[in-house]
Each structure stands twice: as C-alpha cells, then as structure tokens.
Amino acid sequence: MKTFTSHLKPGVPPLLVHEGFSWAAAAFGWLWLLFQGAWIPAIIVFAASLLLLGHPGAWSGALLIGLFVAQGCFGRDLVRWSIGLRGFTPGPIIAARNHDAAYARLLTERPDLFPSLAAAQL
Predict the structure, then answer these.
(1) CB within 10 Å: which end of the chain, N or C, has fewer?
(2) CB-CB contact of 43 with 87 (8 Å)
(3) How far is CA 79 from CA 6, 14, 22, 35, 117, in A?
C-alpha cells in the first residue's frame, strides 16, 4: 500500500503526490524537480550542485552525494511546497496500490470533485 497526499483547488483537477523516498529524485537531482513543476527548488538545487562542482575540495564529493540523498528524502516535500505556492490546499491523505487507484478512491470519497474534472476535459 502506498500513501498519497491530495491537493485541491477549485475548478482544477486534484493533484496527488506520492509519499516517501524518491529514488528518481536522488538519481536525477534538480532535473527531477524541474519535471515535477517545482521550479524554485530546482533552481536552488541546481545552484547548490554547481557550487559544489565548481569548488572541488576534500568534502565536495561527499556533500554532493549528501545533497542527492537529501533530495531523495525531501524532494516530494519540495514538490508539495511548490504546489501550495500555486494555490492548492491540502486535501485528504489516501492509501492505495498505485496512482490510479488513489485517484479513484479520492473521487469516491469526494464526489464534489467531478465538476472540476469535467471542466478540465473540455
């Protein structure tokens, strides 16, 4: 069972964010944030990566690895923060097998969200 947080905004389909460590965020660094739509954190992590790569030292490699591990741990939190900046409010927490099952479960619990889906399909 996986856990998802839902984020709601009137007139817009709900967004779901998976909870937990992200191997993709740890592996791809700032690019992962960029593709998740978290522009501000992506720029900050990119700048930190450039700073660590531009100043080679005894600890720069270890700090760069630490940066990627931290992004794996907190990357989804940064995505949720970025979603909040776009005006979404936190909704219910959902446990499901996968993203589609979580979306179906959210719509079962909150049938009032159907009009926002219908508006998005037009």
Answers:
(1) C
(2) no
(3) 12, 14, 12, 10, 22
Q: How far apart are CA 24 and CA 5, in angstroms?
A: 18
pTM across the whole model: 0.84
DSSP bridge partners of 57: none
Closest by Cα among 12, 3, 17, 16 to 113: 12
Nearest in space to 35 (alpha carbons), one of 8, 93, 64, 75: 75
Confidence of residue 120 (pLDDT cuts 50, 70, 90): low
CA-based diameter of the chain, in Å?
A: 57
